[in-house]
Design brief:
The protein is of the alpha/beta class. Helix content is 36%, strand content 10%. The longest helix is centred in the first third of the chain and has 20 residues, at 3-22.
């Protein structure tokens, strides 16, 4: 993705979060059942880019682990930490998710590290529900970051690396 589009996507997400936080609505008039008064109910859906599967994005969050490899420095978790009680986040992103895993099918998570870098020692993991199941009528904001696994980004990347090695 060109740098401009990446910056545009980050700016758009930030603007949407800010607008949702300052806009009054009926859900904010009454304190939500979660106990967060005037908080934004946010569901983060997505693949490994959203979950933050790579080692550089910190440690995994879930104990016990579900294999989705959501990490402490993934963008939903950074926003949760920075916005504090203003955001009630439900992060159901999952490494290796496809678009279909988000809206329709159960996904069997691969854990961390993702193949071909290795195999998670705790694998296999139990299937997780379609991510859209985390959305309910009280959800104020839904973010979706997915598509790379659907179009075969991993295969494309490894093919490019192989072609580059042949050129040498």
């Amino acid at each position: 993705m060109p740098r401009f589009l990446s910056s545009f996507a980050v700016a758009g997400t930030t603007a949407a979060l800010f607008a949702a936080l300052i806009a009054p609505n009926a859900a904010q008039a009454a304190a939500p059942a979660s106990g967060y008064a005037n908080s934004l109910s946010w569901v983060a859906l997505g693949d490994s880019y959203t979950a933050g599967v790579i080692q550089a994005t910190g440690n995994e969050l879930e104990i016990p682990r579900d294999g989705c490899a959501r990490t402490t420095e993934s963008y939903p978790e950074v926003i949760r930490r920075d916005f504090g009680s203003l955001v009630n986040l439900r992060n159901v992103s999952c490494g290796a998710a496809t678009v279909k895993d988000i809206y329709e099918t159960e996904q069997t998570p691969l854990g961390r590290p993702l193949p071909p870098a290795g195999t998670d020692p705790d694998a296999p993991f139990a299937p997780v529900a379609p991510q859209i199941d985390a959305v309910d009528p009280g959800t104020d904001l839904i973010t979706v970051g997915a598509g790379g696994n659907t179009v075969g980004f991993g295969e494309i990347l490894f093919r490019c690396l192989a072609l580059g090695a042949e050129e040498r």
